[in-house]
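Before the break, one more example. Copy the sequence into your notebook; we will annotate it together after we see the structure.
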Amino acid sequence: MKKQLPILTSNFATLIAGDGYYVDKTEFIPRLESLNYPNIFFLRPRRFGKSLHLSMLEYYYGIQYKDKFTELFGECYIGKPENFTPLKNSYYILNFNFSGIKTQEEDKIEKEFNSEISSQILSFLDTYSIGSESDSQIFRSELSSPDLMRKFFTVFKRFIPAGKIYILIDEYDHFTNELFAFNKEHFKDIVSRNGWVRKFYETIKIYMGEGIVDRFFATGVTPVTLDSMTSGFNVAKNITLSEEFHEMAGFTEAEVRSLILGTIYSEGAFKVDEVIDEMRSWYNGSKFTTEPVEKLYNPQLVISFLSEFKRNYEYPTKMADINVISDYTKITKILSVLPIEDSENIIEKVTTEDSILSELTLQFNNEVPYTKSDAISLLFYNGLLTIEKNVYDFISFVIPNFVIKHLYWEFLRKKFEAEFGVRYEADEVIDLISELINEGRVDRLVAYTQNIMKILSVRDFKGFGESQLKIMMLTILSKTNAYLIESERETRAGFPDILLTDSKIFEVKYQYAFELKYIPQTGLKNLATIRKEGIEQLKKYKDSDQIKMIKNLKTFLIIFTTVSKRSLSKFSGFPENLPKGCLWHRFRQPTQTS
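Here is what the structure looks like once it is written out:
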């Protein structure tokens, strides 16, 4: 019997009651209990399954769900008697979710925080039928969060003196991350020794010491807030980079396969292996440890894709969830604090070379200057970069998948539009993409790139090189999902600047490998040599094992220069009637160019 795709719910009980498919993560419960640390912080990017995991913990440990245990967990790993843990259904659960706290108005942040604390305390009193009406009135008054917590623990001890509380906090850092990026002084104020966020956690710490709060589990995205209040809340373990808990959020490929087979698969309707091959490029690639572990799929992206795919078993024209695409603004927030040369270096590295070396900042200190490594680390914690491998004392970070690559390209388009007045006209982009797909030609692409170069002033060409040219062309090509776009894909023959392969979303006749060259006026004397070397390089790419299997592959050497066509006339070996300021050469056969 097929189950339903787990769409639009992060509530474990609702998912199970609705016959939804649950990707079973309950095997991590015994591992968590076996740790010497009962208080845990676990960080993952947004939309990675953290909220559902917290909900699952609530229903497993909540004393009020004891009679529903088999109904909820009967089909899960933890539902088998041999896997029960000693702490099953033994806690009073106190939940907080800080994801809804808005940061636009500084003076209202604390009020919203206090409101969440008050609301959840009242819900707790109602759930467990404790406290008097006068107690409830106290929690409806405008008290600070530390005062609310102190009064709550007093009431709890009075009514259930032997009870133990498990505190679950979702998105512990949601509002403070926003402040860290845009209002660092206010951030310092609220997490400092006398700040109200710090006092809130210090109050919890006190009652941990008294044995009332027995366990604590908080999720979030970055360690910035945690690190800023370490001495105030030094009783919790951050397991974010632990190999043992790497798969606790996110889907493995085996889990994705089981999800497909258990929900939407119909015999003969599609080939599961082919669909997973396509999904791997778009949604896989996340790795949160330097240890050799399996890369993970983003759960929301997988589920959003499958919910569209199941309608007619065709790939959706938009492969990324619209909510994720809007995340390109996070790149702006993270990089805006850096000097412009550092932020541009990061973008250039990750978009044109597909990787960047850096240390991983494990502990942020808001008393010292914000560094390039800090920014790269925040890109990692937010899921905009992921760990590839260790390189000596550094980590090689890469973009995890094509969805995230599109975020960077969207970021660059917005940057070009804002800073240079570049406009990406939809009809012109459609025409050039159509020419690539159906005609095997690059004329419109070259001309469009040339037009963008015209918009840039002479000043903007200082320091301009092939990396900037590549970035410019990628922002154009990435306006379509027709191609999977790779920059610097490794082959035995080297790295093609741009490789365009069929994404399977549309019918594509031709695929492409581009070698790009940008030659300033001072380098024109080397044109013939550069042309020859570029064509030879394309031949090597085309003969490499990784590329020669690509069907209907067109390879082009595209040379750009800011010099006028008249000035180029004295250089022999180049065709006439070219767009002003650019030269392009298509490699047809091993000995021919045009």
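The chain has four domains: 12-247, 250-323, 326-398, 428-587. The chain is about 45% helix and 15% strand. Try to locate both features in your own notes.
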